[in-house]
Amino acid sequence: MATSKTLGESLRQHGVSRRGFLKFCAATASMMALPPTMAPAIAKALEQARRPSVIWLSFQECTGCTESLTRSFSPTVENLIFDVISLDYHHTLQAAAGDAAEHAREQAMTLNAGEYLVVVDGSLPGPRANPGYSTIAGISNYEMLMETIEGAAAVVAVGTCAAFGGLPKANPNPTGAVSVQDLVKHKPVINVSGCPPVPMVITGVLAQFLTFGTLPELDEHGRPRAFFGQSIHDRCYRRPFYDKGRFAETFDDEGAKAGWCLYRLGCKGPMTYNACATMKWNGGTSWPIEAGYPCLGCSEPDFWDAGRFYKSLSVPTGAPGDLLVTAGAVGAAVGVGAGLMSRQQSKHAVERHDTVTADQLEETL
Amino acid sequence: MATFADIPIRIEQPDAEPQQFGHAVPILNEIRHALARLAEQGETTRIDLGAMPFGPGDEARLMALLGQGEVAAQVDALGPTRIWETRFAGVWVLDYANVDGERIALQIEVDEVPQMLRAPRADMTDSLAALDAALVSAAADPAADPAAKSRH
Fold it and tell me: What is this model's ipTM?
């Protein structure tokens, strides 16, 4: 349960020195996408911060989001933050099960009424769907969510499934899956999308709440602007090649080996907003584009239904022509245009629900 | 917990020049402006290299351009933090790692001395009390004083 101990006291109890704390704050500033000069302000705020109670609900999900968070290098800043928040319910991680686990959730809700955070991963069958598609301890996901958020300060939808419906909601959506924001209208909802989300983005949002007691500024999809404010394309280290019109045409040609732009291999970077290009993955080791693989656009709404992964954005699915590739060399303005156009194409693809066969994929490559 | 270093694989690099993506020189320009502000107005700057869209080779290129100066230090708190002055006086690199040695942040600090190396004032107050206690203890039991033992 959450205690009255401040974060500063809790860290010192963990044997963290003041220099260690300063280091923690420097890494936290980086994690929150704040300038490093904010570290002293973060330190001052964190010294007095109280440990918040967090209730984590897992619905129709693959546990990839929890894996993303917990399988990162240990111990990390993320782990340290989880040491100093009170994670009172997470049925994948907690030892208790059944009634005992549900009792822990109810107790956390009562003791921290109005102050706790609810983190949700996974979409859930909507109110008009068969509740039997996903239940926990005999309670439908819908019932559990609506009951739990009642006394919450805010809800954080972690992963594309919770934020936008994700894979369960992809056509034909057999379980009637909906996103958290489709159901929660009277509490703030922060969407931390991605399949899975970058672990430091998850903890960055929690750190913001922990540090300043406020919720981050959000974009039109309810995502924190600090992490989702710029497109993958605009922050991509391969962007200069796009500007020069140098593209890999296949996964093993000279352009691919030279690290040229992956736009023609279906990269969804221009229409995708996320922090992968700077925060990277596996402790900052690399990220898909650095590994030579185009961005799939996993942090965008309905990306599963947005057409083929390996079809270039400039070639609408099913439409002939190469509308933008030849203009690729003209630079940033085209990048913005491609982003806008690709969103439009995504919308059409969603409406048509194009499918792809293995043979078609082979042809594309 | 297993780390990448524990995985028994060998990476074969082709014999080629390291790739350049051209992101090092703009950062060097930013550092140059920060150093001018420090020299002329005493204004300090920190640059978070983790927020830069570096490609493979860009960080190595920047570090090669910055070089290594006369001062290097390590702070052991929540894992090692390696700090060194570059060949440009007043420009420091801070490489923060966790206890497993994995990097958690990389920053450039443009300052006379990095903040991390300064003793926190609260620690000095605590140290004063600890030092007073050590003096009282030494006065009460001279035999426990290693220096006194060596004099006999």
Answer: 0.70
- CA A8 – CA A18 distance, rounded (Å): 9
Task: Flag if A284 and B50 touch (Cβ within 8 Å).
Answer: yes
Interface membership of B60 toward A (CB under 8 Å): no
Q: Is residue B6 part of a domain?
A: no
Nearest CA in chain A to B14: A257
Q: Which residues pair with A6 in a beta bridge?
A: A50
B14 part of a folded domain? no
Q: Which of A193, A228, A263 is the last residue of a domain?
A: A228
What is the residue type of A348? H
Rounded to whole angstroms, the Cα distance separating A153 from A163 reads 18
Kindly list the residues from chain A whose CB atom is less than 8 angstroms away from the CB atom of residue B120: 18-19, 22
- Look at B48 and A29 and tell me if their CB atoms are within 8 Å: yes
Please state whether the peptide bond connecting residue A196 to the residue before it is cis, i.e. omega within 30 degrees of 0. yes
Cross-strand partners of A117: A54, A154
Domain that holds residue A172: 7-228
Contact: B51, A17; criterion CB under 8 Å: no
Indicate whether B34 and B48 sit together in one domain. yes
Examine the domain organization and report whether A254 and A180 are in the same domain.
no
CB of B18 within 8 Å of any CB in chain A? no
pTM metric for this prediction: 0.76
**Touching check for B81 and chain A: CB below 8 Å?**
yes
Please state, as a whole number, how many other Cβ atoms lie within 10 Å of the Cβ of residue A160: 32
Note down pLDDT in tens along chain B; length 152 residues: 566 667 776 666 555 555 668 889 999 999 999 999 999 999 999 999 988 888 888 999 999 999 999 999 999 987 899 999 999 999 999 999 877 787 888 999 999 999 999 988 888 898 899 999 999 999 988 776 666 555 55
Instruction: Sort out which chain A residues have CB atoms less than 8 A from B116's CB and list them.
Output: 19, 22-23, 26
> What is the C-alpha separation between A20 and A264, in angstroms, rounded?
46
